[in-house]
Amino acid sequence: MRLQLALIQMDISFGNPEANRQKVIQKIGEAASHKADIIVLPELWNTGYDLSRLDEIADPDGTETKTLLQDLSKKHQVHIVAGSVAKKTASGFYNTLYAFDKQGIQAGEYSKAHLFGLMEEDRYLQAGSRPGLFTLGDLPCAGVICYDIRFPEWTRTAALSGAELLFVPAEWPQARLDHWRQLLLTRAIENQWFVIACNRAGSDPNNVFAGHSLVSDPWGKIIAEAGSEETILYAEIDPEQVAEVRSRIPIFSDRRPELYTKE
Ligand SMILES: O=C(O)CCC(=O)C(=O)O
Predict the structure, then answer these.
(1) How many CA atoms lie within 13 Å of 260's alpha carbon, on the beta-carbon side?
(2) Is 78:37 a contact under the CB 8 Å cutoff?
(3) In contact, 50 and 57? CB cutoff 8 Å
(4) Protein residue with least CA distance to atom 7, ligand 1
(5) Residue in 176, 249, 172, 182 with CA at minimum distance from that of residue 9
(6) Which domain holds residue 50?
(7) Under the phi-then-psi rule, with left for phi > 0, alpha for psi from -120 to 50, and beta for the rest, what region is 188?
(8) Which residue out of 84, 95, 124, 176 has the highest number of ligand 1 atoms within 8 Å of its CB and is therefore the one to mutate?
(9) Residue 117, C-beta contacts closer than 8 angstroms, at least 6 positions apart
């Protein structure tokens, strides 16, 4: 069965969760009316990178985000990979992805494992340490966030755990657009899965962001790619292509894990 994807490549209002929340409600409504099966949001869509004000603006325990996205996925009968939000907990702040199925049930939660020093995440955030595995309907999925795609061991771990679709919410800067595209396609080819990457558009006081959300098939072929402007990127995929590519070149059964034990 083919699936319709909608990636919401939005600009994010710096440090203004209420404005971002209103935009997310409107964009999810628009994507749902295009008959999307899965809607994807970018990284830190509630606050942007206004990290020094997290105490004031991060979502306490993610409660507001979870309530909103549960309601929207149920109302529109659509799976939502809700990008990530800044979350405030008793043990500090996290950059956390949530996923909800069409019934409005929370399917997954993942906190960014590799913190990006160039954007001061290591100063303000705590790192997650659990993999982001979840199921939408009967689709085995994984989520990682932005800088995480530079760590092939981490995405390989998710593929070895059975994921066939990788979701990547991001706030990736324009300055390294070439890395973004090459890393995403490489992660797709080496793990023979779909890569569904939703970046933000626009800029904040410190960075201009690249946009260029993209969807790659398990062969590394780009199915859809956005430009740099705010948009909703639509793409159609056939999840059965994963099994077909994995049987054509059987890298998982050809692996030699006994050779890969440097650490
Ligand atoms: O790795 C990069 O070049 C960008 C990463 C990034 O912007 C992030 O993790 O927020």
Answers:
(1) 6
(2) yes
(3) yes
(4) 172
(5) 172
(6) 3-259
(7) alpha
(8) 176
(9) none
CATH number of the domain within which 232 lies:
3.60.110.10
Q: Which atom of ligand 1 is nearest to the CA of 147?
A: 9
pLDDT tens sequence for the chain (263 residues): 899 999 999 999 999 999 999 999 999 999 999 999 999 999 999 999 999 999 999 999 999 999 999 999 999 999 999 999 999 999 999 999 999 999 999 999 999 999 999 999 999 999 999 999 999 999 999 999 999 999 999 999 999 999 999 999 999 999 999 999 999 999 999 999 999 999 999 999 999 999 999 999 999 999 999 999 999 999 999 999 999 999 999 999 999 999 998 76
User: Would the CB of 194 count as within 6 Å of ligand 1?
Assistant: no
Distance 121 CA to ligand 1 centre (A): 10
Bridge partners for 89 per DSSP: 92
Residue showing tokens 């999925």: 141
Q: Which H helix or E strand runs over 4?
A: strand 3-9
Q: Quote the tokens at residue 244.
A: 């077909």
Helix (H, G, I), strand (E, B) or coil at 169: strand
Whether 213 and 225 have beta carbons less than 8 Å apart is answered as yes
Structural domain count of the chain: 1
Query: Which active-site residues does the annotation give?
Result: 43, 112, 146
Residue 112 Cα: closest atom of ligand 1: 9
CB 206 within 8 A of CB 217: no
